[in-house]
Amino acid sequence: MPALPPVPKTIQFTLFYNDNGNANVHNILYYTYSGTLALADLTTLCNNVMTAWGAQFAAQTMPSCSLVGVIGNDLSSNLAPKSASTSAAVPGTNAGQNLSNGATPVFSYLTSRKYRGGHSRTYTPGAVRNSLSDGNTWSGTARTAMQAAWVAFLNAIVTTAVPAAVGQLTHVVAHRYGKTATSPVSGTSSPTRSVPLTTPFTDPVTAVVLNPQIGSQRRRNQQSA
Question: What is the pTM of this model?
Answer without folding.
Answer: 0.90
